[in-house]
């Protein structure tokens, strides 16, 4: 299913005291309020506020980063001229002239439509008219199933949905959708170990995240932008100490760590709040935040593998408790890995500038 923004309609809630806190602490980032309502709510910084207005006075002291929604096209045009993002709201009934609706919507950033009939034919027509336009089509939905259908209509779907429900079970389903939609996958392959070298003392970093990692998860760490090994989370047996399921003992401080959106970061660039990519042994990925990076001097171990004629190496702490995933997804103790064995590898075309993938001639060894 495609990733689309989910708006939540917080106007006219019957049980605002219990429903709204649940929504505001969920992955839902876009929330629609009335002007009177938003004055009395302490909102998290992540929340993108959408305000319904009925008159020009409603935008007094309204931050420019808010999205303004209205049924009144003329009012919304005036608001747009002041620099706000705008959303036109239209209720679609059988007598509605759909040609007028989509043409009116072209003036604004968003066109939010509420369908009164069960059929999705009006939605299909609006999708067809707006699919190559800059206006984002938002459909009002009442549950997760309706959302799923709306996003999948004509293999294009609406650009987003406006969810109207106080059913906690439905909200949980939507939250799961948002979380899962942020996940993607990368292709992991097998590489044969061609060199294992004890290279002496150096600085290595542990990346402590703000979530609990699974036993089959870790991070891609490599010395060059052409790829790296899958270094395991600290979720496997450690003698003399407790597990650190939030941690990846990643490697030497010069290393690349893979990040969301096909980017990389040097370990030394990471800090609290930075985003990194957590990868499992099947190649499934998820975005996670860094809570802390801990750098200490430790003995280091270089492990080099060959993949399709290319050499990829990772330098990790030289210790038994460091795990690197083997070719079959099994955690291997770094200090026991030998030449000729196979490990899981992520391999890609080299070339990075400030972490961004670029096309250029580059040689890294």
From TrEMBL:
The keyword Amino-acid biosynthesis applies. GO terms for molecular function: 3-dehydroquinate synthase activity; oxidoreductase activity. GO terms for biological process: amino acid biosynthetic process; aromatic amino acid family biosynthetic process. Residues 192-364 form the 3-dehydroquinate synthase C-terminal domain. Keywords: Amino-acid biosynthesis, Aromatic amino acid biosynthesis. It holds the Pfam family DHQS. Residues 4-177 form the 3-dehydroquinate synthase N-terminal domain. Signal peptide: none annotated. InterPro entries: DHQS (IPR002812), DHQS/DOIS_N (IPR030960), DHQS_C (IPR056179). This is 3-dehydroquinate synthase. It comes from Bacillus cereus.
């Amino acid at each position: 299913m495609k990733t689309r923004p989910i708006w939540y309609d917080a106007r006219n809630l019957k049980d605002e005291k219990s429903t709204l806190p649940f929504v505001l602490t969920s992955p839902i980032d876009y929330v629609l309020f009335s002007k009177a309502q938003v004055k009395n709510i302490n909102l998290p910084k992540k929340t993108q506020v959408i305000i319904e207005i009925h008159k020009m006075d409603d935008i007094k002291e309204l931050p420019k980063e808010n999205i303004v929604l209205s049924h009144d096209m003329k009012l919304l045009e005036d608001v747009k001229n002041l620099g706000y993002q705008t959303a036109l709201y239209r209720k679609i009934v059988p007598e509605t002239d759909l040609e007028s609706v989509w043409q009116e919507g072209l003036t604004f950033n968003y066109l939010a439509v509420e369908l009164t009939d069960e059929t999705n034919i009006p939605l299909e027509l609006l999708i067809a008219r707006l699919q190559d336009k800059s206006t984002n089509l938002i459909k009002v939905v009442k549950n997760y199933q309706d959302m799923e259908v709306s996003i999948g209509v004509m293999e294009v779907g609406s650009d987003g949905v406006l969810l109207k429900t106080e059913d906690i079970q439905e909200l949980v389903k939507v939250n799961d959708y948002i979380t899962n939609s942020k996940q993607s996958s990368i292709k992991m392959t097998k590489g044969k170990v061609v060199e294992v070298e004890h290279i002496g003392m150096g600085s290595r970093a542990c990346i402590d995240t703000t979530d609990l990692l699974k036993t089959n998860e870790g991070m891609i760490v490599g010395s060059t932008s052409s790829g790296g090994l899958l270094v395991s989370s600290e979720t496997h047996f450690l003698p003399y100490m407790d597990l650190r399921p939030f941690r990846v003992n990643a490697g030497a401080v010069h290393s690349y760590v893979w990040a969301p959106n096909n980017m990389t970061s040097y370990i030394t660039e990471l800090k609290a709040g930075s985003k990194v990519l957590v990868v499992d042994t099947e190649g499934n990925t998820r975005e996670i935040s860094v809570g802390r990076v801990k750098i200490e001097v430790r003995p280091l171990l270089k492990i080099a593998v060959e993949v399709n004629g290319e050499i990829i190496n990772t330098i990790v702490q030289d210790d038994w408790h460091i795990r690197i995933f083997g070719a079959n997804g099994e955690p291997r103790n770094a200090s026991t890995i030998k030449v000729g064995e196979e490990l899981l590898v992520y391999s890609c075309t080299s070339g990075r500038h400030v972490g961004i993938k670029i096309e250029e001639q580059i040689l890294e060894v």
